[in-house]
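Support reply, case 0932

Customer input (verbatim):
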Amino acid sequence: MSSGTFTPAPGAAPLPRMIAAHAGLELRTLLRNGEQLLLTVVIPTLLLVLFSAVDIVDTGAGARVDFLAPGILALAVLSTAFTGQAIGTGFERRYGVLKRLGASPLPRSGLLAAKTCAVLVVELLQVVLLTVVALALGWSPAGLSASGAATAVLLLLLGTAAFSSLGLLMAGTLRAEATLAGANLVFLLLLVGGGVVVPLERFPGGVGGVLELLPVSALSDGLRDVLQSGAGSAWPQLLVLAVWTVVGSAAAARFFKWE
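Our regenerated output:
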């Protein structure tokens, strides 16, 4: 046996392996957090069942679940990519977790990529669960087509990018307690005024036109267009989400503080 066979070779693992390992850690942390599960899984499911079964809000012609299902899918993305990530990252920043991770071989870009991967896995679970519940409640995505399905996936991915960048912006600029309050307040305001359970047409004057520019409104309306109305594309909504993504990402990169 030649000498040096067992010579240590210290060094960082390949970047994809580091991202995968940290993404697994982030995912396990998310799934073990009862408050996060309440926000990301339980609340959207309960809202879907409640508003579909009880005539609380006039959702217009057709079955209530046909209007609500796309909106609740958008709400699920909001809860995971924005609210949950903002709160979790805000407290990681407060307790010095991000500072310590910054000293590890995992680069900051890898850390953000790992967080995004964990968010996408949780969102996939949410979409599957909510779709099954909505179908059980009588949802019939009559307009769904191959091109519509591809557009819906693109909408969900762009919505995730937009909400994630805004959540990281909030977590990286405000104190953890302010992030906790602010993220939950934004969640409640967008639940009511983002076209999720209340049609934007119900708002007076030009308020509905302004609310259409919100990312959750664009995601909700875009999903309804492709899933219910049979639209093969949703360019106006995709453009709104793209603008929010660019602005949020640029602001987060400029103002995010790691400690």
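We compared this against your earlier run and they match. Two observations from our side: The chain has one domain: 15-255. The chain has a mean pLDDT of 87. Please reopen the case if you see a mismatch on your end.
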